Amino acid sequence: MDPIKKALWCIESRFTAPLSLDEIAEASGVSRFHLSRAFGVATGRSVMRYVRERRLTEAARRLAEGAPDILQVALDWGYGSHEAFTRAFREQFGVTPEDLRARRDLSALTLVEPLSMHDISPTTLAEPRFVTGKPLLFAGFGGHFSVDNTAGIPLLWQKIVPHFGHIPGQIGHAAYGVSHNCDDQGAFDYLAGVEVSSFSDLPQEFERLRVPEQHYAVFEYDGHITGIKQAFEFIWREWLPKSGREPALGATLERMDERFNGATGNGVVEIWLALKG
Fold it and tell me: How far apart are CA 161 and CA 37, in angstroms?
């Protein structure tokens, strides 16, 4: 059973009680980092955001049924005060608990129902090759994102494309997407750029990133770039748990060389996953 299904089972069977990321990760049989990355790739939201949204959805149902004591509803669903509950409820649904209880109508709310443990089908990749990557220097354009919001990443690629082949110190012709500074809440930094030999002659507009020597599993995804999400799902949900290997906190690289057609979005993308030695 993959870690996402285990996590969903744990959450759906226990989210009325206090529940931490550590507890969910333990029930899933993987590390916090592994679960956060796998869950984010598969569902588009962080683990604890899903827990929060499910709790508030069930609280909304109680209120629409006319629950007499809003504070008791807040306490039942893990909030220590009426104020904290109201703030979170308004942030998710755009109305206050009092408003919802008064009108007793859920039709205008976007409720978060339980995710199915059966309907997420990742693609399958061939077995990776294993390499020890040298220290790397990257130059490009970057931003801060989360699994909940990656909409700005294509804009980084649009911004870097006109510079390909003209970046001082550029090594080769491969393009790199580098995810780094990933945390347990699903946030990460992303850089779209190229490998360079030095930062010394780079114009100020370029961001700079050093990636130390790391051990990698290198997968090859061959298809349209819009399907790469399913490739990452396979790696995090299927391959890693079965391989017995552990992911490292280092950068993950998406490498696109002459086998990838940037104009059509089709071709081979190498996914370099950092592993513990």
Answer: 28
CA angle 47, 8, 90 (to 5 degrees): 50
In this structure, are residues 4 and 42 in contact, taking their beta carbons and an 8 Å threshold? yes
Nearest CA-CA partner of 43 in 53, 30, 57: 53
Radius of gyration of the chain (CA): 22
Cα first-last separation, the chain: 25
Check if the beta carbon of residue 171 is closer than 8 Å to that of residue 254.
no
Helix axes 3-14, 32-43, angle to 10 degrees: 90
Residue 167's φ and ψ, nearest 5 degrees, are: -85, 125
Tens digit of pLDDT for each residue in 83-129? 999 999 999 999 999 999 999 999 999 999 888 765 555 678 999 99
Beta strands per DSSP E along 134-259:
136-146, 175-180, 187-195, 207-211, 214-224, 252-256
Helix (H, G, I), strand (E, B) or coil at 8: helix
Q: Which amino acid is at 158?
A: Q
Q: How far apart are CA 254 and CA 274, in angstroms?
A: 12
In 3D space, the residue among 194, 138, 200 whose CA is nearest the CA of residue 166 turns out to be 194
pTM, two decimal places: 0.78
As a whole number of angstroms, the distance between CA 88 and CA 69 comes to: 17
